Amino acid sequence: MNHFLIAPVVLPALVGPFIIMVVRHHLDLMRIFSLASTVLLVAISLVLAAQASSGEIQVYELGNWSAPFGIVLVLDRLSAMMVLLTSVLALVVNLYVIGSGWDKRGANFHALFQFQLMGIIGAFLTGDAFNLFVFFEVLLIASYGLMIHSGGTRRFQAGMQYVVYNLLGSTLFLFALGTLYAVTGTLNMADLAVRVAEIPAEDSALLRVGAVMLLLVFAIKAAVIPLHFWLPASYANAPLPIAALFAIMTKVGAYAILRMYTLVFGPDLALTEGLAGAWLMPAALITLMIGAIGVLGSYRMGRLVAFGAITSMGTLLTAIALFTPEGVTAALYYTVHSTLAAAFLFLVADLVTERQGIEITAQRVMPQSGLIAVLFFAGAIALTGMPPLSGFLGKLLVLDAARDHDLVWWIWGTVLIGSLVTILGMARAGSLLFWKSHSITETEVDPTVAQDHQPHQLHEDHDSSAHGKVAPTARATVLPFVACFALLAGLVALTVFAGPASHYAEATAAQLFAPETYIRAVLGEVTP
Amino acid sequence: MNPLSIEFLVASAVGLLTAAGIYLILRRRTFPVILGLSLLTYGVNIFLFATGRLMVNAPPILNKYADVAYTDPLPQALVLTAIVISFGMTAVVVMIALAAYLSARDDLIDMPHHPEDEGEDA
User: Fold this and answer.
1) Residue B62 falls within a domain, yes or no?
2) What is the CATH number for B32?
3) Considering the domain boundaries, does residue B77 fall inside one?
4) What CA–CA distance (Å, rounded) separates A156 from A142?
5) What confidence tens digit (pLDDT) does each residue in A163-220 have?
6) Residue A409 to residue B79: CA distance in whole angstroms
7) ipTM for this prediction
8) Residue contact B89–A167, C-beta within 8 A
9) Cβ contact, residue pair B96, A299, below 8 Å
10) Closest residue on chain B to A138 (Cα)
11) Which of A246, A370, A394, A247 is nearest to A315 (CA)?
């Protein structure tokens, strides 16, 4: 048994309490331990990814209890890829947060950050449905703390909505798991797959109810219309670097859909055939469109990027809803891309709001305007899927995979029109922020903008109330820009190495559509 | 079905708790919403408990010396986990609700619209 497999869960689980109990009064020590832990996580997940790329599926039995009775962690290509993505994103966000001083604005940022990572990575690695619920709760309870980090009225209110919405999701998750357990008598995913396949069609009503409830739960996490309501308010009101980390959280929902509906309720299973795809496809297309319209209608930075993230979730779920190897290949490539792109744009949005407040309006030229404009431009290109960056390739893969689908014209139309609308929204925001500000003179700005925005900001957003007025003196720190350029470099690398990346995605999709290997790896000999 | 059978009692308890919970979480103020969430978690805990089939007077332990009835121990473990998690979550949600209430002087669950927002919407 390879004990290395549990390292990415154990490491943050140890570093988090250590930070909170031993070094909580020393900011520098907290930063050092947090950063060291995330760097180590990247190293560990690189090793795991290398091990998984051979195609072998590794199983870790906790407490050495064998599979259907104990909890297992399973490492296949998909898990390894998601863990690597999470740890890389975490490293970049951690650098940004340290550089911008966000971690000083409230207590216990670094400890919560470690717990969040533990939950996300655990959710990607676990091979047990109830354990998936537990890791969901770990990542959620950490995210509640991070979401209201540094406080403020509006943040608390948005946090309240976020918590209530997710608690409802958790309750529904428990109902779904209870239903599945009542029918099959197991919660191990591989064992579920075996048992579900044995259930006669006439007794499957309860099972199908469970499958649909589970889909609803994951759709809440993935912010699919009509269950997306929590996302714009909570991401836009969370501290924006933390929203950048949350970019991976919606992917946890997408991952869970992909895992459960290829392994347990696979596309070949007669009982639930087309159940997920038939509901998910229209929902994903509407999600895409609503996100695009939201981008066009946003007049605040946070909401702009949050709706951008919803658009990319729409595209991603469209690809997943095809439930073909080609579709999943496209979805996996697009997952990596859209996580990096959304996180990148959230960080750029934070650079902007730190300098001139949360509104997308033309104000006086902000410090480092040129550099930030370049970053925003690159981020907008990436998120909308314009040619030079990997978003274009990702969307092309999605469009190509949809060619044989019944709804092909709907898919192509929605993806293309959605992209166009998103481009318009991003272009509007970019030209207001970076171009129009040059045509405004100081005398015009001071009486109008400063007066209009000051009371509103004081009321709404405590920590940005200061920057509205004293923006021009904001000192440039290097680390936030390093973090942004690191993400941009990641996107460029994903474009340049699109060949190897899509081959890896292809192999992953092939592995997902051959669940027998997964089942055999977990359960040993499968009874026919 | 016999209205005094344990199945009927448990099923109607789950149903009542869930219905009351859903009614309460649709209210506009945080206190009823939190109460509703608690009722929902009670409902789901009883539901989970019933997923291992209902047995009376049966221990959740196998007895290898005698052939006696036993009940499925796994749902009981699941319920314990769910109770602990929902207890922690309720504490968190109460604290956040309190923070929102104290800082906004209002316990409406909706986000208030700023006058400026409405101006831009119009």
Assistant:
1) no
2) 1.10.287
3) yes
4) 15
5) 999 999 999 999 999 999 998 888 999 999 888 888 888 778 888 888 889 999 999 9
6) 47
7) 0.89
8) yes
9) no
10) B85
11) A394
